[in-house]
Write a structure and sequence with these properties.
This protein has about 270 residues and is of the alpha/beta class. The protein contains 11 helices and 5 strands; from the N terminus they run H-H-H-H-H-E-H-E-H-H-E-H-E-H-H-E. The protein has a 5-stranded parallel beta sheet, with helices on both faces.
């Protein structure tokens, strides 16, 4: 067996040095490291990196690439209708929103404390965009998320005929780190919607954060879920560890200005 060189100095930069290492890195699953290996060998020679610094740099690139892929995968799984970041949201147009309070939802504390957020107001005020901004940031921090509109959930519930099917539908919404339920109250729902919404809110209560947007005030939710007691129980859990904001003002759409990333109404 060929003796290994002493662990000092810099890794060799010759093309032959990368030839056996690239396939080996791929075999052990370090595919990105294999791709950038030649560049790192050249850098190591030019900057006279130690073996430790060379290896650390190569593995840091692999780790960063894996983190990017994982984030992209979680964003796809979340089902967000469009991309948006909090930097795109202009709080000057929504002074009723307490910026410092909203910013608390953008770090891991919001997930750890299972804080809910309910945004209420007419269409076109940026409720959906803000919820997506928060969910996107938390996904980037490593958490899982799911987005569904209330109508989509109601339609799916209306098609189910078995308890097993209902459980299969609700399970990912119950277990994801962050849930966004959009447009609650915009359209009539099926009788099964109220109990399902209660199950989601109660199941996530004190465990995981829930973000809800609605065009109906909390006092009108009884009509949405078709049960006053059920609505009271839902609202009680959302308020206990969360915030409710009533948005007001002219619609971005009527002004001809759409929040960055949000699609205009057809």
């Amino acid at each position: 067996m060929t003796a290994l060189p002493p662990a000092t100095g810099a890794p060799a930069s010759q093309p032959s040095a990368a030839a056996p290492l690239g396939p080996l890195l791929e075999r052990v699953g370090l595919t990105h490291a294999a791709g950038v290996l030649p560049a790192w060998l050249d850098r190591a020679a030019d900057q006279e990196l130690s073996y430790a610094d060379f290896l650390a740099g190569l593995l840091e690139e692999e780790a960063a690439a894996r983190a990017t892929v994982a984030t992209q995968r979680r964003l796809r799984q979340a089902g967000l209708p469009f991309g948006a970041s909090i930097e795109q949201f202009d709080f000057r147009f929504r002074p009723e929103l307490k910026r410092q309070v909203i910013l608390r939802y953008l770090d891991q504390t919001a997930v750890e404390q299972a804080r809910s957020l309910t945004l209420i107001g007419p269409p076109g005020l940026g409720k959906t965009m803000l919820a997506i901004c928060i969910a996107t940031k938390l996904v980037q921090l490593g958490y899982s998320a799911r987005f569904t509109s209330a109508q989509a959930l109601a339609n799916q519930l209306g098609r189910l005929t078995t308890i097993v099917g209902r459980q299969r539908l609700l399970r990912p919404l119950l277990t994801c780190d962050v849930l966004v339920l959009d447009e609650l109250g915009y359209l009539p729902t099926v009788p099964a919607f109220g109990p399902a919404l209660y199950e989601l809110v109660a199941g996530r209560y004190e465990r995981r954060p829930t973000l809800i947007t609605s065009n109906k005030s909390l006092t009108e939710w009884a009509a949405i879920v078709q049960d006053a007691s059920l609505a009271a129980a839902i609202v009680d859990r959302l308020l206990h560890h969360g915030e409710v904001f009533y948005l007001k003002g002219p619609s971005y759409r009527l002004q001809g200005t759409t929040p960055a990333g949000e699609l205009p109404l057809p």
